[in-house]
Amino acid sequence: MRVYAAIFAATCAAVLFAGCSGYSNNSLYSQDIKSVYVEMFDNETFRRDLEYDLTDAIAKRIEAETPYKIVSDKSRADTVLSGKITALDDSVLTIERETGRPLEEQAEVTAKFNWKNLKTGEYLLENSTATASASYSQFQQQSFDYASKTAANKLAERIVEQMQMKW
Fold first, then answer.
1. Phi-psi group of 142: left, alpha or beta (phi > 0 → left; psi -120 to 50 → alpha; rest → beta)
2. What is the CATH number of the domain that holds 68?
3. 157: in domain
4. Does 56 fall in a domain?
5. Which of 59, 77, 123, 137 is most buried per CB count within 10 Å?
6. What's the pLDDT score for residue 10?
C-alpha cells in the first residue's frame, strides 16, 4: 500500500512541476539598450500628415510600455527606429440594402520599418512589416481621417510589440 502511495505522490509532483519548466521572469526587452531615437516615418501614400501621427504614437508607446527612453539627439541614442508608411487602404465592411451606401468601412495602415543598434551596427529588426486597421461609420459621425488616426495608433502598438526579444 505504501508503494502505491509513494508512486501516486511522485506522479502528482511530476505533473505539478512539469508545466513550470518553461517559465521565465526575464524582461521581454533587451537590457543592453537604454535609448531609442525615432526618425520621422516616410509616407508613400497620398494622405498627408499620417506620418506625424504614427511617429508620435510610436514614441509615446515606447516611453510608456518599454524600459527604453526616447532621445531627441541621434548621436546620444543606442538604437534608431525608422520606417515608412507603405499603404493606407479603405474598404467597405457592410452595405445598407435599400440604398447601397456603406454602413461600416475600414481604414488599414501598413508600414515597413527597421530598428538598428548604433553601437554594433546590426539590425535588430530589418524590413519588418506591420498592419493595423480601424472601422468607422459615417452614420456615427466618424470619418476616414478618424479611422486612419486610430489605425495609426494600433500600428504603433504592433511596431512596439515587435521590439520585444524573441523567446
1. beta
2. 3.30.160.150
3. yes
4. yes
5. 77
6. 65
Q: What's residue 29's pLDDT?
A: 84
Domain count, the chain: 1
Per-chain mean pLDDT for the chain: 89
- Radius of gyration from C-alpha coordinates of the chain: 23
Q: What pLDDT is attached to residue 12?
A: 63
One-letter identity of residue 88? L
C-alpha distances in Å from residue 153, one per residue of 6, 31, 131: 57, 26, 11
Q: What is the pTM of this model?
A: 0.81
Taking 70 as the threshold, does the pLDDT of residue 28 lie above it? yes
pLDDT digits (tens, 9 = 90+) for 55-89: 999 999 999 999 999 999 999 999 999 999 999 99
Tell me the C-alpha distance between 102 and 7, whole Å: 66
